[in-house]
Amino acid sequence: MAKAALDTLRELYEGNSDRAHRFRYGLLAFDVGTILYVVATSFSNHGRVVEMLDMLFGVVFLADFLARLSIEPQKLRFLIRPVTLADIVSIVSFLAPLAGEGLGFLRVVRTLRFLHTYQLFRRLREDFPFFRRYQDVFSATLNLLVFIFVMTGLVYATQYRTNPQIENYADALYFTVTALTTTGFGDITLTGSLGRMISVVVMICGVTLFLRLAQVLFRPVKVRETCRKCGLSLHDADAVHCKHCGATIHIETEGDY
Q: Where is the Ion transport domain (predicted)?
């Protein structure tokens, strides 16, 4: 009986059947809904209803985690992966009793659920040619958005109640975006040594990610098609020969050209 249950779980999480694809897309959709929930509840007061919803999300995440752990052949390696550790911390944050703003620091670990958007992008890239063709643009956009929301959660968690300029999640998001773009209006600043270090991280890392997005948006579009002769993987969308070795390449296109 246990073996049959494990086989079913393995087929759902790793199989290629239509049922497996629907199941995994369902989990990814749930993750997206969780991300929207994390952002939305950051603007509201936490009461009994939100606390119950937190527990519900936490139970689902825990069940998903235990299912993935049960079918993993190398459980120790699975448990020490950075993404797995982030999942564990995130699960604890949802299952912890949250009532009121006093435990606002837990929101920073909740934003680790944003890491699951990488799974969504990976699945879309595997299933749809459009996402494969423009994967550099989507990847750069995703990296920037994840960084913005994770850093916003960190700013809010460390500055709320200690910094009168950070009264809600919107204030933290506003500061993160202005620091990232080096606009620097100066109407909101972070206090203390920790606040200054967070500002430095936002400016250095955020500007780098922003410039990367601008680069992939405004440079000529490339597609990934590995040359069988020399191994060059990036080519112009309309290329018929490899720039490096001159070999003929066959880039799949959509529609009529």
A: 39-210
